[in-house]
Protein 1
Amino acid sequence: MFNKQVNYFKKKLFGVQCMIWDLEFKRFKTLYVREQIRQEYDGLRSKLEILKTQIASEKDKSSLSVDEFKRLEDTQVTLDKDIERKKQQMAGLDTEINGAKPSAENPESHQGINETIEALRELQNVTKAYIKDL
């Protein structure tokens, strides 16, 4: 009986280690996606700055037709919306990785990947101590 119990908890310990590896991979993948979104965000911001400069210069000398100027302003609005969407995506990925504490806007807390990994490492330590006691 004693040997079966030790073997069971050793298998459980290996399962916990596999869960940690899976979560570390998920964290890596999430950070990779976040970096891609950040690069797109930076590109959109630079396009917006160029567009704002162009709009400001066109207001001064007005070499474009009214339709072309309105098209530039519409493009600016579209870029603003895209930039805001990218910000929200990055914030969501940050919450997935780091978790979220309860706040006024979000009354429920969210356990992130990092917190889950730490909890599993603590479970590993407890399981190892339990196996030693057997």
Protein 2
Amino acid sequence: MHMKQFLNEVASGGKGLHPRSESVDDLAAFQPVVETALEAEALGYVEQVIPHKESHTGHRFYSALIVIGLTDAGREVIAAP
């Protein structure tokens, strides 16, 4: 997921994010979303990211995350062409 797409999703109310299902394939496909969220937090685009790791597959994938608040910097990224 691209940063701007992620920030737009957060801005539109998608603050709780999770994979489509708990299958290993869906969990694996969700990991880039988590990486984007953590990068957004590190860059100061969102106030906080709270990730959760699953334990039933043995892979310890992130299985959900909560994103708290866009910052002014995050809104600027969205507004940029």
Protein 3
Amino acid sequence: MVSKELKYINGHFYDDKTKNRIELKDNIKITVATDEKNFILLEPAGNKPKQILDAKAKKQEVESDKKVKHYKKVFGAGKALYFHIPKEDVWFKAELLEDLYIFLNKKSKKDEGKLYSCACVVTANINNKILFFEEIYGTSLNELYKSTYVHYYGNFGNPACNALDRFLEDYHDENSNLMKYRLFTSKDKKAKGNPD
């Protein structure tokens, strides 16, 4: 057993003598001695939405957004989606806290939609590979993936993703991603949006 004097600055540990940044191995036990006031209870991980819109308010938000040319509702609030972080084959379950829409941007010349921002939360690590799991919040599926990756794996790898590819409707079916909802048909293009 060894004892070191460390300083914790900007999310990193530094050896007080050598001034070198050090990291700790995963799944080890350490003893931290400091004043009680130095332990801070943290807010939930990710970016917790300040407000969660009901179905009517979310539709109004999408309809009134100046960049939206056409839109379609894909799923209602409460829908479970799944994603996987390949780094260590870890699977997560996410829940939509608001309705999820796909939209065509007025500037886009293609009929390929983008996901509209949607409050969501990671609710479970379904293959139990995370020792201390906690819920992670996001204001979009892309942000949710990134926040989950950074929370559990820090800067080890690339936390970016395309949520249309990464999120699945069925945990057991790799082909159940959201890409199939991306294309807009002439039926989808009634007026500005489409009725629910």
Protein 4
Amino acid sequence: MSENTADVVATKGANFTLTIDVATIAKEGAKLLVAGQPDRALEVADNGTEVSVTNVPAGDSTVSLALKWPPGDTRDATVDVKPGSISPASATVTVADPKPTIDNGDTPGFVELFGK
């Protein structure tokens, strides 16, 4: 993966809230995966549609989401960043255009992240 193909590109060290619009994330079901490092648990909001990504590492990483899909719902989940959730103020977080999706039924779902 590279900056050009990542789902989300963020400033190294940035913090932000990742959102999905369909499905829910299991309470203990979000992890940041970085090659050569232990998986890092990420905090899932009570509503199950938001996860806090903290201290974005440099280079490639992946957010893994254990998703529960509503019965009968055939929509894919759209990935976005919650407005106003980016810190510090100097950080930037950009979501790919068009916004990435996680296919209905995929669990875990993966969001590719690049820190620069």
